[in-house]
């Protein structure tokens, strides 16, 4: 695509241009925001303003027109989010971010074919969120190939690629005026040492220094600083603030001609590349004696609840089974049905003193995810959300006749809610391909959107198609999103793998085993996934942070969850603890603690399987439970399940239940008998029935008739 470079003149904005070029994009213009005449620098939260005297030379070196605007606004909105969570929200009047909107709008007037904006952001969510907000309003795509890169690696790459940038401002501990004018190559060792001593950001992401680029692979000319002046702003003994005033500069022919190419990062980290090999080998092992799973459509009708199912616990609210009234009227468009669902949702939320912006996670079920269907659903969906929309999983399932859409959600009014909503192309993980955030944190939970195996720089699936590469990518994307959403990472409490071929469940299971993923897990085969993907991974994460009493006060502790699972067999209840990582010897491969308790065995097939994630913290209950069932569990079986010590404290805090069931299985009576024993009639979690073509879980290819994933809150 054709793009405009958002230029500060620094190393990051210039180096990102090389990656835009490497990904096939065409630079047509540059744009910059400057302080008012007579000011070398202003205190801006958004823009690098020092060095603006030389920015014209950077554009001339690139041989593209430069568009400039004077910064007139202030940093009025200084929160993590920018704009309103309500649908259709604009910017903040008088904020300096709106100067960027006016600038890029002017660029579009002169270059109507511009589609992208090069952004050199590495770590700053503050800057990224605001640039993306402007780009969304102007229908522009942010190109941010440095986003979330390791700073030490990135600095080395810049130097190796021929980026010649000099320090023009210092404002970090250990940096002084004598470092002004030094190149990155000359400063690399010093910056690395200061990082080790004081935690200084090697690429200056904490504002420790600013740079001006004198040469880069894309420059047609090199810049020479003919006359400069050191200006001392704050003469502090440990961290003085000083900058270089550019009084005179000139362009000179480049000594060596370069093609502007840079080395593009490997698609997969080493550990995920190994996981890809595991899946490839699994596919090869089964190639001769296994055929692709085929699904025979069933005419067996099944019913869904007529009304939405709701359940509230404290400030949490779960709403399930939202769908339009089943209607044979084929004239009702999908967009109208989506709007119907969200209108219902709005009404329910308002009755609980909540609003759409309090929704943290949504599961959207459609009859198909063909391109037109997916686009139509997203168009209507987007009408109900502004900035920082909920996280989401979107899957195509075999909905009952006359039902074109169904959804379920979890909401909570919480001022600490944080959303990771990345909309730019990068090497990090895919930008959102719909109106959703990659993750929403409402402590202690991080709700992560379903991840498919898109190539982040292009948002396309691998070609030729590859289950192994898609699987490795969804694992890597999920891991990166978790780390970006929560600085301390987190612990996965539940993993759902949505698949379109039951033969792929075994290969995905092997990937889980390789990744040492010990958590309640389900493999669910459905009709279709976004973009024609073969696998989508959705996880629920817990921060692992707890506040516990400590004598006369409270203290913050970090904990890792234990995973337990077991089976209840027909005729007599017998609990088989298939994995209980509580005490004993450490597993050398996974680093988990394996229980020394003897595993019981039974020749009879299990009728119930349970899995749980729990933290060994006094006063807490398990946060997530999965139950799988086959046939019709008896009341005695369910009573035994309810009394299991690891589960007994959970039933009264269960908020939501996603009930996955085979379309051709009689699931309703089995779930009804289980739910009545466990929850009674009054404390039933909000339930959504989700039709699947195949359901399996950890450790076995055996298929279950139905399974339920339960979320608990306290």
From TrEMBL:
Enzyme class: ligase
Enzyme Commission no: 6.3.1.14
Keywords: ATP-binding, Ligase, Nucleotide-binding
SUPFAM superfamilies reported in the protein's UniProt record: Adenine nucleotide alpha hydrolases-like (SSF52402), YjgF-like (SSF55298)
Domain Diphthamide synthase stretches: 1-241
Biological pathway: Protein modification; peptidyl-diphthamide biosynthesis
GO terms (BP aspect): protein histidyl modification to diphthamide
Pfam families registered for this protein in UniProt: Diphthami_syn_2 (PF01902), Ribonuc_L-PSP (PF01042)
Reactions performed catalytically: diphthine-[translation elongation factor 2] + NH4(+) + ATP = diphthamide-[translation elongation factor 2] + AMP + diphosphate + H(+)
Molecular function GO terms recorded: ATP binding; diphthine-ammonia ligase activity
Full protein name: Diphthine--ammonia ligase
Organism annotation: Suillus placidus
């Amino acid at each position: 695509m054709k793009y405009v470079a958002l230029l500060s003149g620094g190393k990051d904005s210039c180096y990102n241009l090389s990656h835009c070029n490497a990904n096939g994009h065409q630079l047509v213009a540059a744009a910059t925001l400057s302080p008012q005449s007579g000011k070398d620098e202003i205190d801006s939260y958004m823009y690098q303003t020092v060095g603006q005297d030389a920015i014209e030379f950077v554009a001339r070196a690139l041989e593209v027109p430069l568009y400039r605007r004077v910064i007139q606004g202030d940093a009025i909105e200084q929160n993590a989010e920018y704009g309103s969570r309500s649908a259709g929200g604009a910017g903040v009047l008088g904020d300096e971010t709106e100067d960027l909107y006016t600038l890029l709008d002017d660029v579009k007037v002169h270059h109507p074919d511009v589609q992208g904006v090069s952004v050199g952001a590495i770590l700053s969510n503050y800057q990224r969120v605001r640039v993306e907000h402007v780009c969304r309003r102007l229908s522009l795509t942010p190109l941010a190939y440095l986003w979330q890169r390791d700073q030490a690696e990135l600095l080395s790459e810049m130097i190796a690629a021929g980026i010649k940038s000099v320090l023009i401002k210092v404002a970090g501990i250990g940096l002084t005026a004598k470092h002004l004018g030094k190149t990155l190559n000359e400063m690399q060792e010093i910056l690395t040492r200061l990082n080790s001593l004081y935690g200084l950001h090697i690429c200056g992401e904490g504002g420790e220094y600013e740079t001006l680029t004198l040469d880069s692979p894309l420059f047609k000319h090199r810049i020479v600083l003919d006359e400069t002046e050191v200006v001392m702003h704050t003469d502090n003994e440990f961290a003085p603030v000083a900058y270089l005033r550019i009084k005179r500069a000139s362009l000179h022919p480049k000594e060596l001609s370069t093609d502007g190419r840079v080395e593009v990062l490997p698609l997969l980290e080493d550990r995920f590349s190994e996981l890809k090999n595991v899946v490839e080998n699994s596919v090869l092992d089964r190639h001769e004696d296994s055929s692709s799973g085929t699904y025979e459509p069933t005419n067996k009708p099944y019913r869904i609840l007529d009304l939405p199912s709701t359940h509230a616990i404290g400030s949490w609210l779960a709403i399930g089974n939202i769908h339009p009234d089943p209607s044979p009227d084929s004239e009702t468009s999908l967009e109208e049905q989506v709007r119907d669902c969200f209108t219902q949702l709005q009404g329910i939320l308002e009755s609980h003193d909540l609003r759409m912006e309090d929704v943290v996670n949504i599961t959207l079920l459609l009859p198909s995810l063909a391109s037109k269907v997916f686009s139509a659903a997203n168009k209507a969906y987007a009408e109900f959300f502004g900035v920082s929309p909920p996280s989401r999983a979107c899957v195509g399932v075999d909905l009952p006749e006359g039902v074109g859409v169904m959804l379920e959600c979890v909401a909570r009014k919480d001022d600490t809610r944080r959303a990771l909503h990345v909309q730019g192309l990068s090497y990090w993980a895919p930008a959102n391909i719909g109106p959703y955030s990659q993750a929403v944190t409402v402590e202690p939970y991080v709700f992560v959107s379903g991840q498919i195996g898109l190539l982040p720089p292009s948002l396309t699936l691998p070609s030729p198609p590859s289950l192994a590469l898609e699987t490795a990518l969804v694992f890597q994307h999920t891991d990166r999103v978790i780390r970006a959403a929560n600085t301390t990472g987190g612990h996965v409490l539940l993993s759902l793998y949505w698949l379109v071929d039951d033969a792929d469940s075994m290969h995905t299971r092997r990937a889980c085993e390789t990744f040492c993923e010990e958590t309640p897990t389900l493999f669910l085969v459905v009709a279709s996934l976004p973009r024609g993907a073969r696998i989508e991974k959705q996880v629920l994460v817990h921060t692992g942070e707890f506040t516990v009493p400590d004598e006369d006060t409270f203290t913050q502790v970090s904990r890792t969850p234990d995973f337990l699972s077991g089976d209840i067999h027909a005729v007599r209840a017998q609990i088989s603890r298939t994995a209980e990582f509580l005490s004993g010897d450490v597993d050398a491969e996974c680093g988990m603690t394996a229980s020394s308790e003897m595993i019981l065995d039974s020749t009879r097939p299990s009728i119930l399987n349970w899995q749980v994630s729990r933290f060994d913290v006094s006063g807490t209950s398990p946060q997530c439970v999965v139950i799988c069932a086959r046939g019709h569990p008896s009341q005695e079986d369910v009573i035994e399940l309810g009394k299991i010590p690891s589960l007994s404290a959970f039933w009264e805090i269960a908020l939501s239940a996603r009930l996955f069931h085979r379309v051709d299985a009689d699931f309703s009576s089995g779930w009804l008998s289980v739910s009545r024993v466990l929850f009674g009639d009054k404390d039933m979690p909000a339930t959504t029935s989700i039709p699947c073509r195949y359901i399996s879980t950890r450790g076995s290819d055996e298929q279950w008739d139905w399974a339920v994933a339960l979320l608990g809150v306290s």
